[in-house]
User: Which sequence fits this backbone?
């Protein structure tokens, strides 16, 4: 039975984020640029929030927890590494044998290549997220020390990282700030921003809801224009960063904390709990369903919707089955 204290907002955000992940890996192959350039840019800007939402959600849920360093490193890392290793083997071997064919020599080559690519972070382009989250989890104990030092210390850290990102984008060639342009600091900022948004006393106010809504609309429109016109990349990166934070704040301020429809709430929570497993496994089915549906006499937008639905449902069914036979902790 679902806990009455469960905050459904986080489950909704996680469910939306995983759908956007599937969209990101389906949209270019099905629709690509065969639509109006502004429509194409609008869709890209919307679905690009997938990973930022996951990162901010992790910050919101993890930074404030009081856990020992050993528990954080042992338990948290184990929860993302074990399913990753399980699905990475299946994905890597599947795509390798599709290209090379199955035989004893190719199996040996594949096994050697897997070990090399696992260390080199090159199993599949989709899995970059796992390595990034491992880095955030390793940094988590240090960030928690700042959080536990008080709100003022946390705000200073958040502003320090933000100022570093702004300076790094404004002066990308300067040897003193080049290291701030590392993408990792962007994820650290979003990780911290998620916690700030979740704990801010302003989030529940009507004024905050209005400001976040207006900011989201304006920043989304600006992102679309900057992407279409291909203007200053540094400015675009900073605008996107603000857009991601505004979007997360808006969702937290408008979504209900408690579900009012048991069936729908249960479906959202299930989707949320399966999200990591869907992320790890969905790439196996995207190409399959695109090939099956691309030859049908259907509008491309309908093919796109069908692929999203079929990939998500297929992954969910397989994960649920594996969980039923006792492999839940291994696959998700």
Assistant:
């Amino acid at each position: 039975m679902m806990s009455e204290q469960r905050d459904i907002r986080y489950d909704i955000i996680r469910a939306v984020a995983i759908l956007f992940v599937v969209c990101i890996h389906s949209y270019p192959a099905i629709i690509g640029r065969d639509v109006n350039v502004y429509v194409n840019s609008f869709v890209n800007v919307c679905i690009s929030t997938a990973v930022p939402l996951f990162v901010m959600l992790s910050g919101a849920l993890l930074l404030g927890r009081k856990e020992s360093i050993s528990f954080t490193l042992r338990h948290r890392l184990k929860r993302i590494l074990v399913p990753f290793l399980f699905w990475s083997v299946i994905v890597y071997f599947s795509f390798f044998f599709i290209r090379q064919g199955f035989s004893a020599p190719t199996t040996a080559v594949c096994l050697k290549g897997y070990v090399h690519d696992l260390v080199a972070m090159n199993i599949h382009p989709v899995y970059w997220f796992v390595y990034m989250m491992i880095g955030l989890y390793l940094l988590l104990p240090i960030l928690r020390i700042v959080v536990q030092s008080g709100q003022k210390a946390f705000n200073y850290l958040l502003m320090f990282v933000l100022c570093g990102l702004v300076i790094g984008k404004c002066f990308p060639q300067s040897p003193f700030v080049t290291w701030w342009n590392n993408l990792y600091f962007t994820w650290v900022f979003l990780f911290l921003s998620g916690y700030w948004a979740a704990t801010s006393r302003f989030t529940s106010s009507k004024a905050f809801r209005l400001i976040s809504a207006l900011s989201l609309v304006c920043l989304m429109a600006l992102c679309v224009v900057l992407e279409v016109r291909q203007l200053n990349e540094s400015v675009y990166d900073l605008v996107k960063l603000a857009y991601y934070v505004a979007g997360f704040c808006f969702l937290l301020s408008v979504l209900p904390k408690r579900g009012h429809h048991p069936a729908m709430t249960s479906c959202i929570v299930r989707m949320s709990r399966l999200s990591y497993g869907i992320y790890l496994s969905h790439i196996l089915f995207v190409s399959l369903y695109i090939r099956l549906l691309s030859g049908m006499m259907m509008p491309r937008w309908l093919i796109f919707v069908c692929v999203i639905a079929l990939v998500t449902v297929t992954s969910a069914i397989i994960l649920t089955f594996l969980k039923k036979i006792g492999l839940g902790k291994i696959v998700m």
User: Anything to note?
Assistant: The chain has one domain: 8-331. Residues 8-331 form one domain.
